[in-house]
């Protein structure tokens, strides 16, 4: 099992929150400081800067509500429950994020806890402790270099796409075990969602050079298209899975043509990824021109006419034809963007 950078930062932020709280004599709020530090860690510096003000606001809202309720109606368990519901409603109204809302909940619970100390002194210690936790997490986020999201993003895209293309090859030949394929489709869908999250983190990174900013903007467009194309290949896989019986019952020659054309399409996708990686030898001619062009439009036309004589089944293969055509168009767009990106990189 590998411990990620965020887990390491969480541990360091918690330790820092403990030490600072002890240094300022905030022993009564050690637990609150630790919880606040844990919930305030962000995956990137940009998000950390973006959320610290909101987290401080949430702390103030939670503390203020807790003080008001303790002074007016007490701190019975059902009153604390009411306070939590109220502070969640306030945070939702202010459109605060879930982790920010959690800070407000911590503040309410911390303030409404039973104590033998003078109440306002106790409330001040708890408020300060939570603030220490928030600031500790913020400083730890700034101190540690953020992960290289560009490298991680491409690795995730490459790995997920390879799995999808492998399963498409198996499925077009009707060799896949359906229960296993169903589990893999669920996993691949989850992996694609994770890729989207990594892309969002990469897009949030900031550059302070105009030249690097322009280059990074081009990479963002290219990565966005790589993800779009992977999503289309995933749609092809899910369509093949749903229509496996229908495809298996079409004429054998048509089945062979589907396999041949889909294989050429997958080969195109793989070769485009290898081109980005620079693993294909450069020649005087454009290597992208050597990619075998699949005849997807012709295949789609044949699929639509496969049941021309049977009106009931005439459009049975329309979903497959549609997804193949969409996948083909995304590959063509990826090819154009990759050529443009490589030409600009060489200039």
Automatic annotation (TrEMBL):
Signal sequence coordinates: none
Location(s) in or outside the cell: Cell membrane
Keywords of the record: Cell membrane, Membrane, Transmembrane, Transmembrane helix
Pfam families: ArAE_1
Transmembrane segments: 78-94, 101-119, 125-145
Protein origin, superkingdom: Bacteria
Keyword Chaperone recorded: no
Membrane-protein topology: Multi-pass membrane protein
Protein name as it appears in the record: Uncharacterized membrane protein YgaE (UPF0421/DUF939 family)
Organism the protein comes from: Alkalibacillus flavidus
Upper classification of the organism: Bacteria, Bacillati, Bacillota, Bacilli, Bacillales
């Amino acid at each position: 099992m590998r411990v990620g950078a965020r887990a390491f930062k969480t541990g360091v932020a918690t330790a820092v929150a403990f030490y600072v709280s002890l240094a300022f004599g905030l022993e009564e709020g050690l637990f609150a400081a630790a919880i606040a530090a844990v919930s305030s860690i962000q995956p990137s510096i940009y998000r950390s800067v973006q959320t610290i003000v909101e987290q401080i606001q949430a702390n103030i809202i939670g503390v203020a509500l807790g003080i008001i309720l303790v002074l007016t109606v007490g701190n019975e368990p059902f009153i604390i429950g009411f306070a939590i519901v109220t502070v969640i409603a306030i945070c939702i109204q202010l459109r605060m994020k879930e982790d920010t809302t959690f800070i407000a909940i911590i503040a309410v619970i911390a303030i409404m806890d039973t104590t033998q100390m003078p109440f306002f002194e106790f409330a001040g210690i708890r408020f300060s402790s939570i603030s220490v936790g928030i600031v500790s997490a913020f400083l730890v986020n700034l101190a540690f270099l953020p992960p290289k999201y560009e490298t991680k993003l491409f690795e995730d895209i490459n790995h997920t796409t390879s799995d999808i293309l492998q399963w498409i090859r198996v499925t077009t030949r009707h060799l896949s075990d359906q229960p296993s394929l169903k589990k893999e489709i669920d996993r691949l869908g989850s992996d694609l969602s994770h890729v989207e999250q990594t892309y969002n983190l990469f897009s949030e990174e900031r550059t302070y050079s105009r030249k690097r900013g322009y280059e990074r903007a081009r990479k963002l467009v290219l990565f966005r298209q790589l993800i779009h194309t992977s999503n289309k290949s995933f749609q092809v896989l899910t369509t093949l899975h749903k229509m496996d019986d229908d495809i298996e019952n079409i004429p054998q020659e048509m089945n062979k043509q589907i396999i041949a054309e889909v294989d050429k399409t997958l080969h195109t996708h793989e070769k485009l990824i290898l081109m980005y990686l620079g693993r294909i030898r450069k020649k005087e001619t454009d290597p992208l021109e050597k990619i075998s062009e699949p005849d997807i439009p012709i295949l789609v036309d044949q699929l639509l006419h496969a049941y021309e004589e049977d009106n009931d089944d005439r459009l049975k293969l329309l979903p497959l034809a549609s997804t193949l055509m969409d996948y083909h168009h995304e590959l063509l767009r990826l090819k154009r963007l990759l050529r443009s990106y490589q030409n600009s990189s060489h200039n």
